Amino acid sequence: MSRNHDRLAVKAAQLAAENTLLDLATEKPATVAGALLGHPDIFRELHDDMARMLLLALMDRGQAETLRQLLGLKAIGRRKAALLAELLLRDAFGE
């Protein structure tokens, strides 16, 4: 029972984070990046595919510096930090 409860809690957190991003979808990229910086838990709880898509979209819109600050917070979890670091390095080297 506890295992199922844990899975449901993780899924609920992911859905809440995705709903928050949907609410922010109409805002400017700088607003979305700033919201992630102010609330790194939103990013940490996102599904990896959604996180990758969001990061790529924000970098395409000139928000790489804000995302570097997000990486510096160390509040996004190891897996998301590794994903963000990889994408920032690719962006820096123009891949």
Structural overview:
Helix content is 80%, strand content 0%. The chain has 6 helices and no strands. The protein has one domain. Helix 4 runs parallel beside helix 6. With 95 residues, it is mostly helical.
Q: How would you spell out the order of helices and strands?
A: HHHHHH
End-to-end Cα distance: 46 Å
Largest sheet, described in full?
none
Structure classification: mainly alpha
What's the alpha carbon Rg, rounded to whole Å? 14 Å
Instruction: Please give the number of β-strands.
Output: 0
* Helical residues, percent: over 70%
Number of helices: 6
Quick rundown:
This protein has helices at residues 2-24, 29-38, 40-45, 48-60, 64-72, 78-92. With 95 residues, the protein is mainly alpha-helical. The termini are far apart.
Key phrases:
mainly alpha; 80% helix; 0% strand; 95 residues; single chain
Tell me the layout of helices and strands.
Layout: H1 2-24, H2 29-38, H3 40-45, H4 48-60, H5 64-72, H6 78-92
